[in-house]
Amino acid sequence: MSVIPRARDRADAPARSGALPGAGFRSPTPVSRVLRLCLHALLAGLLALAAGRAVADSAPRAGWVVGVCALLAAVYAAGVLVPAVGRSTRASALWLASLAAVWAALLVVSPDGLWIAFPLYFLELHLLRRPWGIAAVAVTACAAIGGFLAHSGAVTPGAFLGPLLGGAVAVATVLGYQALYRESERRRELIEELITTRAELAVAERGAGILAERERLAREIHDTLAQGLSSIQLLLRAAERTLPPDAPAAEHIARAREAAQENLAEARRFVRALTPPDLEHGSLAGALERLCSGAPGPRVRFSVSGTPRVLPTPYEVGLLRIAQSALANVVRHAGAGRAEITLTFMDASVTLDVVDDGRGFDPSSASPAASDGGGFGLPAMRARAETLGGLFTVESAPGQGTAVAVTLPLPVEAP
């Protein structure tokens, strides 16, 4: 277990995400594991180099060099293995301070301690916030330069360029990795958002498909089966009137008319059962009023004119869907402050008007939306109205708002 991945579990991890990736992820990536192993191997190799050279050269302080290298390795291993170092900012700072103190002692007894500055750069940039990390790198570089000058006794450009260039490369590497890490996180979040959105769209499409099929079945039953049974009932009633009451066929015709009437009532129950959820618990006027009260954006008012009457289910579904689509266009495209939906009942027709005071458009050249995510565009609204035998009109001009109207002829009720 390494301190590197645990360090990112803290709240300030994005600011300190250094050159060692994999911290704070669900599981370490192969790249992060390789980089951590490289850091461990680099520090171990440099410590072994410093101790080996001191022993090989029979340096006066060879024993001290070996002892300090062993102590530095022990302190480093403790920070890697102790969980608190990776979970606490204070523990991480204390660990880095301990490493720096032991490293300073190594600088005193061996000039080869200079090279330990390079792995320290990455640890400081990774575990500390960016300003503190850069400041720690600068202090470490100055300490490395001072240790080298103290041992060599000569001032050379290399004494300055090596630690300074190493620190600059470490900072550039860490900053570059942070940018890549943030970009990777943004892409990961975007992919997760796209997956979630696709799942939501699939659910919405299934729901829309179910509603569309229910509406289609209701319309087919109303336009074919129900109308046919109604016609049969009318014909049987007419035949019944032309026969004398005591005619042998009169009783059979009466029974046939009653059967047709019962089946017509059953067909109408099927149509009502296929009604969309918005119309299940109330009338069309109630559904439109709820639609207006829940609309976001502009203030929408609903009103009813004339004497309300029961409409065929396909009419109610069609008018509700057209109102939903028109209001969606108002909210998304019109930039309106007010809108009004009016349902008008007349003797032979019913009319739905949706009027807004928005920016308007030129109906002859463009429509505000061919289609949108919440409803239908103008062509679809027109097609729905014409399918029901109605008339669909749009009146608008740039800067003068928009008025959408659909008029459906009321069917003649059977006597």
Automatic annotation (TrEMBL):
<dbReference type="InterPro" id="IPR005467">
    <property type="entry name" value="His_kinase_dom"/>
</dbReference>
<keyword id="KW-0411">Iron-sulfur</keyword>
<dbReference type="InterPro" id="IPR011712">
    <property type="entry name" value="Sig_transdc_His_kin_sub3_dim/P"/>
</dbReference>
<dbReference type="GO" id="GO:0046983">
    <property type="term" value="F:protein dimerization activity"/>
</dbReference>
<dbReference type="GO" id="GO:0005737">
    <property type="term" value="C:cytoplasm"/>
</dbReference>
<dbReference type="InterPro" id="IPR003594">
    <property type="entry name" value="HATPase_dom"/>
</dbReference>
<dbReference type="GO" id="GO:0000155">
    <property type="term" value="F:phosphorelay sensor kinase activity"/>
</dbReference>
<keyword id="KW-0479">Metal-binding</keyword>
<dbReference type="GO" id="GO:0046872">
    <property type="term" value="F:metal ion binding"/>
</dbReference>
<dbReference type="Pfam" id="PF07730">
    <property type="entry name" value="HisKA_3"/>
</dbReference>
<protein>
    <recommendedName>
        <fullName>Oxygen sensor histidine kinase NreB</fullName>
        <ecNumber>2.7.13.3</ecNumber>
    </recommendedName>
</protein>
<dbReference type="InterPro" id="IPR036890">
    <property type="entry name" value="HATPase_C_sf"/>
</dbReference>
<dbReference type="Pfam" id="PF02518">
    <property type="entry name" value="HATPase_c"/>
</dbReference>
<keyword id="KW-0004">4Fe-4S</keyword>
<keyword id="KW-0963">Cytoplasm</keyword>
<dbReference type="InterPro" id="IPR017205">
    <property type="entry name" value="Sig_transdc_His_kinase_ChrS"/>
</dbReference>
<dbReference type="GO" id="GO:0051539">
    <property type="term" value="F:4 iron, 4 sulfur cluster binding"/>
</dbReference>
<dbReference type="InterPro" id="IPR050482">
    <property type="entry name" value="Sensor_HK_TwoCompSys"/>
</dbReference>
<keyword id="KW-0808">Transferase</keyword>
<keyword id="KW-0902">Two-component regulatory system</keyword>
<keyword id="KW-0418">Kinase</keyword>
<comment type="function">
    <text>Member of the two-component regulatory system NreB/NreC involved in the control of dissimilatory nitrate/nitrite reduction in response to oxygen. NreB functions as a direct oxygen sensor histidine kinase which is autophosphorylated, in the absence of oxygen, probably at the conserved histidine residue, and transfers its phosphate group probably to a conserved aspartate residue of NreC. NreB/NreC activates the expression of the nitrate (narGHJI) and nitrite (nir) reductase operons, as well as the putative nitrate transporter gene narT.</text>
</comment>
<keyword id="KW-0408">Iron</keyword>
<dbReference type="GO" id="GO:0016020">
    <property type="term" value="C:membrane"/>
</dbReference>
<dbReference type="InterPro" id="IPR004358">
    <property type="entry name" value="Sig_transdc_His_kin-like_C"/>
</dbReference>
